Amino acid sequence: MNPSQPSSLSAFLADLPKPSPQALAVSDALCRLITQEIRANNEWISFARFMELALYAPGLGYYSAGSQKLGAAGDFTTAPELSPLFAACLARQLAQLFAQGLQRILELGAGSGRLACDLLVHLAKLNALPEHYFILELSAELQQRQRHLLEQEVPHLLPRIHWLSTLPEEFEGVIFANELLDATPTHRVRITPEGVEEIGVTTLAAHVAHVAGAPLTDEVTTSFCLAYRPASEPLLFAAQALSLDLGFEAEINLNTRALISSLTQRLSRGVMLLIDYGFGAAEFYHPQRHLGTLMCHYRHHAHDNPLVLLGLQDITAHVDFTAVTEAAIKSGAHLLGYTTQAHFLINCGITQLLSDSNPQEVQRYAPLAAQANQLLSPAEMGELFKVIAFGKHCAFPLLGFARGDKSHAL
Ligand SMILES: C[S@@+](CC[C@H](N)C(=O)[O-])C[C@H]1O[C@@H](n2cnc3c(N)ncnc32)[C@H](O)[C@@H]1O
Predict the structure, then answer these.
(1) What is the mean pLDDT of the segment spanning 155-163?
(2) What is the best residue among 64, 89, 90, 137 to mutate for testing ligand 1's pocket, by most ligand atoms within 8 Å of CB?
(3) What is the CATH number of domain 79-184+253-401?
(4) What are the structural domain ranges in the chain?
(5) Is the pLDDT of residue 33 over 90?
(6) Averaged over 47-53, what is the pLDDT?
(7) Which of 48, 202, 318, 326 could share a disulfide with 227, CB 3.0–4.6 Å?
(8) What is the DSSP letter of 76?
(9) What percent of the chain has pLDDT over 90?
(10) Which atom of ligand 1 is nearest to the CA of 107?
């Protein structure tokens, strides 16, 4: 909890839908776990570690515990949950890659399994089913949901679908992910007259004791506040390279960089396709965003306080696609394309897919047209979401990047 804003925060929380007693019990257990870790680490953990525990602590974190996260009944909606048009377009891009001999898919962070399910259906229609469809999903609970959905909707395709518990040492094929990187625990810094500080989390009790110079009590507290330490390498070097102005608070996602390096190194031949919201570094670190891009989602309410509703709300940050590109290129890949979601979907034929539905059949056509608008409109997902592709020992023009290239913005 941010001690400087207790009244506005409690007013804000009072307006949100109430969590169930079971959900609150899980949240309390997560608070105790984080408190223990903070105590064991000299009263401070990095924000990245806090976010990792809040989202992925086994059995307790947001993505690991049992609540519904995606879709209308959850906290936020992603493109594959919003419309089957998204998977239909992506299937066309994948079919082009399969025709080049890349017959295996690895999807990272498959959420409810909706995208995997719809992709396989559309790929079957295009007569382009992959030999193998691998899924790597961090959350055991979501893995179960994925299995259940795929068993229900495409039981005949199950022999092709395999769940992995770790990244394979070597992979040839197509690696892709939708909204994985925004859910990767991020480091945060702030720029002060004394230099670059790393933003971390401590318990409120430790904070109060520190301020008052009093000794800590043994009482377990479930409230947290932000706390700051001089940034150590390599965060310091990464922040210095960005030349951020005094007063800036910003995310620098070292975990995303490490993940992209690792994926690129393991890709022996193939394409990595990533879809997420974000910008190139110039826009990401623009003074307009001097307080960063961190957002939390709870039952379709968005706010910027990651310290409340622990384990009950999603915590995300936009993606710095320049950092992603640098990490991929440093590890041996080359950029195949970078564009907006709107351009990617149009290049993959979304308008033709829509026109395949008869406008006279209003009940079917009207929702599809509304979904296409949400996917494409600059005011919705069309501009903020980007698609980026890297190749390793594969260099041919990709369907989805035929027009609207934005590589100059990286
Ligand atoms: C925002 S959700 C997106 C889900 C889905 N791709 C969609 O578009 O609906 C993020 C997903 O990534 C998973 N995830 C996060 N980090 C991961 C990692 N390092 N490896 C595999 N899965 C991960 C989460 O558990 C969750 O399923």
Answers:
(1) 97
(2) 137
(3) 3.40.50.12710
(4) 21-61+187-252, 79-184+253-401
(5) yes
(6) 98
(7) 202
(8) B
(9) 77
(10) 6
